[in-house]
Design brief:
alpha+beta; 4-stranded mixed β-sheet; UPF0216 protein A3L10_09280; UPF0216
Amino acid sequence: MPKAEDILNREIARVNLHLPASRPTLGELLNEDEPRVRLRDGSYHYFKRSELEYLLSLLDRGEEERLRIPIVLEISTLYRGYFRVRGRIEVKVMDKILGTYDILEEKAEELYPRYLLPKIRKALPTTTTYAFITE
C-alpha cells in the first residue's frame, strides 16, 4: 500500500504537468518565428512576442541569454502566504515589475507575498507559470 507521502508526490507531479519540459532563454525565443515551449504533458505553450520584447526592455545587454522562460513562480508548502522566484535575472525582472529593484542588491532567489501574484501575472501572463512544490 502506498504511503501518504508517495500519493502526495504523485498528485503534485500531476498538478505540475503544465510545466515546460525545458526552459529556453529569452534570446532563443526572440529568434523563433512562433515562440513556444513543449510542456510535460506533450502540448505546447505559446508566448506573446510583445511580452518577450517587454522582458527584453527590462534587461541589460546580454542578459536575454541567461533569462529562462517561462519564469517559474513557486508555490511551496513551506512558505505559506508567499511565492518564490529563483535566478538572478528572474528576481531582477520581478523586482523591476514590482518597483522594488535595487541595482546594488543582487539576489539569487526571493520570496514575495502571494497577494502580488495578480500584479505579476497581469504584466507577464504568458511568460510566467506556477509550480507547486512540497518541501
